[in-house]
């Protein structure tokens, strides 16, 4: 508290009042743990949203690992890989366990959107990256570089800063208000762009570059996912208003949002399975976080206008927190296949030269091709 006061006085005395205004006041003394969380998040609703979002991240991070294990078991038993268009993983109980875990995490995430804005809930997915990296180390035998610890710490710092400067959710009294936001010309233009670009990726880029460029599958999941989050938030608001006595779940707008979310999630799951079956788990989850966060924050700013009533200081720290999270995710993924040691990790992050070793996804693709050729010869 003393340190914060001295910094504020120094900045104000030096004629830097705008920067001083960006420094948060110290918390009141003698707060309970629950009150401290609410103070950190700015409100009780934001605190509930943060708790649900972090719980969701742990469940989803674990689901990545469990589903990847099911995909590997399916290929080992002679089934066609998901990247080759096969669905033999549906016969694996382990894959379904991962699916149930993901449903639990997504359910918590869905409820979080009812209490907190998307610009707060979505970036907290950095905890998913950290959790999946740790789980992959212990359950899949995937190595985590020593620099990955720094990446996890950065994700933690970014999460705390983002929660502290989270915006308040604009009050919404009916699902018709959400529908009117979705019908804005600017947001409709965004939807048309997402659908057009996604179709171009599905029918143009995915058949040619899907197995060699992780961005293709992840971009499809992320852009469609941003639309599903906007609809999910509408459903969450409708559910919250219904619990408060105003029935919103039976309205046609809510039913349309539910149908839209179902179509979006089916598309996301299909291409996420292809990405997990082809590329390293940490790589997929890391790239997916960056793309999904950027797409969702963009969609939320357009549709819900999350930054409309925010102060420049709050927006500044939200952007800083997002960049810190992206840096942490980049360190986790960029040092995944580098040689041991901090120097080697730094060289891998700063150098643009390709490694002489074949990346893991190339080995996986080669193994899939060999397995398919052996099956054809046996037949």
Structure notes:
With 379 residues, this protein is an all-alpha fold. Helices cover 75% and strands 0% of the residues. The protein is built from 16 helices and no strands. The chain has helices at 2-13, 17-22, 33-41, 44-76, 93-115, 118-121, 126-139, 147-164, 175-182, 185-209, 214-243, 252-278, 281-303, 312-334, 342-350, 360-378. The protein starts with a helix and ends with a helix.
Write the layout of secondary structure elements.
Layout (H helix, E strand, L loop, with lengths): L1 H12 L3 H6 L10 H9 L2 H33 L16 H23 L2 H4 L4 H14 L7 H18 L10 H8 L2 H25 L4 H30 L8 H27 L2 H23 L8 H23 L7 H9 L9 H19 L1
Helix pairs in contact: 3-4, 4-5, 4-7, 5-11, 7-8, 7-13, 7-14, 8-14, 9-11, 10-11, 11-12, 11-13, 13-14
Mean pLDDT across the residues is 76
Separate helix tally = 16
Please tell me what the overall shape is.
Answer: globular
From the helix content, strand content and strand pairing, which structural class follows?
mainly alpha
The tally of strands reads 0
Low-confidence stretches: 1-23, 36-41, 352-372
Largest sheet: none
Could you tell me how far the N terminus lies from the C terminus, measured between alpha carbons in angstroms?
74 Å
Integer-rounded radius of gyration: 22 Å
Please bin the fraction of helical residues. Answer: over 70%
Order of helices and strands: HHHHHHHHHHHHHHHH
Measured by DSSP, the beta-strand proportion falls in under 5%
């Amino acid at each position: 508290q003393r340190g914060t006061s001295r910094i504020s006085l120094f900045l104000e005395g030096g004629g830097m009042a705008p920067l001083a205004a960006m420094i948060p006041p110290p918390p009141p003394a003698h707060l309970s743990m629950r009150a401290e969380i609410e103070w950190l998040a700015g409100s009780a609703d934001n605190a509930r949203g943060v708790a649900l979002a972090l719980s969701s991240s742990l469940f989803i991070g674990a689901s990545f690992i469990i589903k990847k294990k099911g995909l590997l078991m399916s290929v080992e038993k002679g089934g066609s890989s998901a990247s080759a268009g096969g669905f033999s993983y549906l016969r694996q109980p382990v894959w379904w366990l991962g699916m149930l875990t993901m449903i639990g995490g997504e359910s918590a995430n869905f409820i979080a959107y009812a209490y907190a804005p998307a610009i707060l809930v979505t970036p907290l997915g950095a905890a998913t990256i950290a959790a999946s990296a740790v789980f992959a180390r212990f359950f899949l035998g995937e190595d985590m570089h020593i620099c990955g610890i720094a990446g996890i710490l950065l994700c933690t710092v970014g999460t705390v800063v983002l929660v502290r400067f989270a915006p308040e959710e604009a009050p919404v009294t009916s699902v018709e208000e959400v529908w009117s936001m979705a019908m804005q010309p600017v947001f409709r233009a965004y939807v048309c762009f997402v659908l057009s670009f996604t179709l171009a990726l599905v029918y143009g880029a995915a058949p040619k570059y899907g197995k060699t460029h992780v961005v293709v599958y992840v971009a499809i999941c992320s852009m469609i996912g941003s639309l599903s989050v906007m609809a999910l938030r509408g459903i969450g608001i409708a559910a919250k208003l219904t619990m408060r006595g105003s029935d919103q779940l039976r309205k046609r707008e809510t039913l349309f949002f539910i149908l839209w979310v179902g179509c979006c999630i089916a598309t996301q799951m299909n291409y996420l399975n292809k990405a997990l079956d082809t590329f390293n788990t940490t790589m997929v989850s890391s790239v997916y976080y960056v793309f999904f966060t950027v797409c969702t924050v963009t969609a939320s700013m357009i549709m819900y206008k999350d930054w409309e009533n925010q102060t420049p200081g709050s927006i500044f720290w939200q952007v800083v927190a997002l960049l810190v999270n992206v840096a942490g995710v980049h360190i986790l993924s960029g040092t995944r296949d580098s040689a041991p040691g901090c120097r080697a990790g730094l060289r891998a992050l700063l150098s643009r030269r390709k490694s002489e070793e074949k990346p893991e996804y190339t080995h996986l693709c080669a193994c899939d091709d060999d397995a398919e050729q052996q099956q054809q010869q046996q037949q």
